[in-house]
Every structure is written in structure tokens, then in C-alpha cells.
Amino acid sequence: MADASYFATDLFFEAFRSAFPVPPPEPVPGRAGADAWRQYVAFYRWSASCVEPVAFANFIRRGDVYLEGGLCARRNFYRRLPDAHWRGCKARGGVVQILLEHAARELNDALAWFGYCGDAKSWRVNERIGYEPTEHRHLIVRWIRPLPDSEKRTLEATIAAIGPF
What we know:
Layout: H1 5-16, E1 37-47, E2 50-62, E3 65-73, H2 77-80, H3 83-91, H4 95-106, E4 112-116, H5 120-128, E5 132-133, E6 139-143, H6 149-160
Parallel strand pairs: 3-4
Antiparallel strand pairs: 1-2, 2-3, 4-6, 5-6
């Protein structure tokens, strides 16, 4: 969805202690409008009447790439899972990896995904789905389309110039 604030504001605040990334209603200079935003939320159904948002990721289309950020999971989610569900989730890499794999099936119309990652646990998940480090501190990339190395480095420098996202 373009704006998952209804579902994921509390989850995002729990993870980052900051305001939820809400897309602007219209493009403004230097920022993408809501039509460029894709927010993914993973839900877990505890019962027929109780569904909880447990993971989130934000993607913003910028030119020929997506900028991925806000990746998080509910802190106490795994402790509360029934054993069989915990084992199944773990076997698939965890709820964040499941969410990213789903997004990868849909957001495959770009040259690459870029992320800004300084957290070791987040890096392990991102690495499993194909991200690799760049020469720029904390900037990671998941190449979707093949490009010559010179074009990759140019694109990496362009995205690094944005700063943390």
C-alpha cells in the first residue's frame, strides 16, 4: 500500500522511536509523492478475531531504483509464537525475510534496491535476500538488473549523496 500508517505506526515507533514515514499527498521538490511509495506490512493472525502487524518495510521509487528503509519487526513477536509457527518462520528466515521476499516478487521493475543499514541483525536478513555492501558506509544494494560495474558505481554514488533514508 502507499500509506500503511494505520497499521504500522506503533510498530515503527517501537523500533525507531520516531515518526512513521508518511508519503506526501503530492510530490514536492526533492521528494517523491505517494504514487512512488510502497509500504509493506506483515500480519500475524493470533485468532479469528486478533490480527497483529508484526513487520514493516518502506520502499520509495526514485528514478530507476527503490530506496528501502524502515525495516523492522515487532520485538516480542517470536517469543509469543506457538512453537510450530516459530520453527516454520525461522526455517523461512524470519518474518522480515518473508516480507522482503514478497516485496521482491512485486518490486522487480527497477535496476536495484538500495538500503541504508547499520544494524548487524538487519544486515544478516538483507544479505540473505541478495543485498551486498557498497563502498559507501551503511549503503547496501540488491541488484535486480545486470549493469556494467562502472554504471553500478555511478548509481551507488548518486544514491549515497542522498544521505540516510
